[in-house]
Structures are given as structure tokens and as C-alpha cells.
Amino acid sequence: MSFTVEERGNPNSLSYRLFFKNAEGKYISPFHDIPIYADESQNIFHMVVEVPRWTNAKMEIATKDILNPIKQDVKKGKLRYVANVFPHKGYIWNYGAIPQTWEDPAHKDGDTNCCGDNDPIDVCEIGSRVCTRGEVIKVKVLGILAMIDEGETDWKVIGINVEDPEAKEFNNISDVQRLKPSYLEATVDWFRRYKVPDGKPENCFAFNEEFKDKDFAIEVIKNTHNFWRALISQQTKAGELNCKNTCVSVGDNPYCCSADEAKAAVGETCPCGKEEPIPSSVDKWFYYERK
């Protein structure tokens, strides 16, 4: 199963979009049409890479737009870049999401006592290769961190690309602690403080900042897949989410998007143009004492 991407608009601008196609060249939604599993029998999941390691642009699957392309988050009319909180530079892993999952904002999680953040579940991929934006990789799940972001549950799955040279050595969260010392501590530190330069408070975590193991993580992922299934089958209200898809819903289902409708939606966006410069302020480092 292979996927390709098509750039539209000017990179590093408000018009930029990254649309997805399947092997047949059909436009698809990375939220709804890419299967959750790459290999269900081995619990290997697909991951859509939104942000390559070391970069700062806060790119994400546009859950409220038709076909859910990747685009850059916007705050107060300006493109959003994640601040560098010393000693970190950009995202410290390849960052993305598992398709066909959804953290339901109407469901209060029993472990965090908070409702979901209305997004697909996030993944931090810790392999040695820097991935490309829009790449769809297969990940082995190792563990999970329960972040609480402004009162919402925001799970962070820790995984590794199955094609990574080191993948065979990593089978659970304890292997990350053993083979990549300080990486998990840095991950908690990154998520705790990355919004502080924007004037936000530090984030907090359930389980006393402890990473839960592989089995726990897989169970959480499966739960978010069940929430997505309820969403796509119209058992749950979508709210502002765009659930149009070209492969899952069929017939007269309101979420069924025809090939012509998908082509038209992409055609309404700007053709790929010249890359805009990234502001030099994105490279600034911020310094804070750890509390």
C-alpha cells in the first residue's frame, strides 16, 4: 500500500496545502482513508508524518477541511511555528498522527479525567532517519505519554519506523529508556514547556509523568479507533470536523466524496508556487528555569 502527496499553494504561506493520493492516483483523506493498520496481526500502525524532526512549522492534518490536507496551523492570522525552548530545536522526533483514530471531545478519559482534544492520536517517531512531510510510514508502538493540554486529553504515542535499522532492538518503552537514555525525559520536558514562550502555562501529565508501556498504548489507540468508527458511521456528531472521504463511505452516505468532487476541491486551491521565506525569528532560543 503506497501513498503520494501533491503540494498546492506556496510553501511557508497561508495558501500551502499537502493533499494525499493512493496508489491508483485517487485523492484521499489522510484522516479517514488511510487504514489505521499496516499489519493488524503484528500491531503495526500507519503514521502520517506531519512534522519532520528538527523543523518548527506546526503542520497538521486539517480535520475541518475537505480531504483533510496537511496545512500549517494559524494563530491570530499568522503561521504558527513551535518555539525553541533551550536546549531543544524544533520537534525532537518525527511527529504525526495515526489515521482512522479520534480523541473524542465528548468522552472523559478514566485515566486523565479530561475529554479528548478532537484530533487523531499523535505519534512521536524516534527512529534515526528524518522523515519528509506527508510521508506515510509503518510504526511499531513502544509506549505512550498522557499529556493534559489546556484541560484536554492529548495522548502522545512513542513509536519507531519498522524500517529503521534499529527497529528490531526496540519492543517496549523500557528499550527506549535503556538504548536512548534521557530521550523520554527530554520528551516530557519538550511537551511541558513548548507553549510557555506563547504566554501559556506549562502542560501537565497523568500518571505522574510516567510513560505507559506498549500494551497500554495499543489499547488506547484501539479505543481512539473505535471513537473514529462511531464518528465516520454517524453515531457521533462530527461538529466542525470534515468527514468526507473517497474510500470508506459509499453510496448516498453524506460523507462519501466522489472522485470528481475530490478533484474539484483540490482544484479550488492555488497551484504550487514559489516558496516563501521562513522568518528568522523562528530560530530564536528561549531560556527558562525548570520548575
The proportion of residues forming helix, as a percent range, comes to 10-25%
- Beta-strand fraction estimate: 25-35%
Shape, principal axes of CA atoms? globular
For the secondary structure, the number of strands is: 18
State the assembly state of the protein chains. single chain
Distance between the termini: 46 Å
Cα Rg: 18 Å
Describe the main β-sheet briefly. 5 strands, mixed, barrel
Name the structural class.
alpha+beta
Mean pLDDT score, rounded? 97
Number of continuous helical runs: 4
Unreliable segments (pLDDT under 50, ≥5 consecutive)? none
Strand arrangement across the biggest beta sheet: 5-11-13-15-14
The ordered string of helix (H) and strand (E) elements is EEEEEEEEEEEEEEEHHEEHHE
In short:
With 291 residues, this protein is of the alpha+beta class. Helices cover 16% and strands 26% of the residues. The chain has helices spanning 173-179, 183-193, 214-232, 259-267, and strands spanning 3-8, 17-22, 27-28, 37-39, 44-51, 59-61, 70-72, 74-75, 78-79, 84-85, 94-97, 115-116, 122-125, 136-149, 152-161, 204-205, 212-213, 285-286.
